[in-house]
């Protein structure tokens, strides 16, 4: 298992190096910084969307509660009209 993983990593690194003998650390660091910045922007967007979802869910519950109360009042009104 370990030998298979080692060989897979070796093939990957050889493919990334494209015949070079040194690892391109500056390019990798720049890519890491770029990807980290992108991840941070996406995380901020996720948090904003979660807040929006909470707000919409709260509005949905309030509308549902209002409609349910209106239905109950309408039923009470009908019941009172029938009793008269």
Which features does this protein show?
84 residues, mainly alpha, 89% helix, rod-shaped
What level of helicity do the residues show?
over 70%
Give the biggest beta sheet. none
**Tally of helical runs:** 2
For the CA atoms, what is the radius of gyration?
Answer: 31 Å
SSE order in H/E notation?
Answer: HH
Summarize the structure in words.
0% of the residues are buried. The termini are far apart. The protein has one domain. The mean pLDDT is 90. By secondary structure, it is mainly alpha-helical. The protein is built from two helices and no strands. The radius of gyration is 31 Å and the shape is rod-shaped.
Which helices and strands occur, and which strands form pairs?
Elements: H1 2-17, H2 25-83
Task: Summarize the entry for a quick read.
The protein is mostly helical. It is built from two helices and no strands.
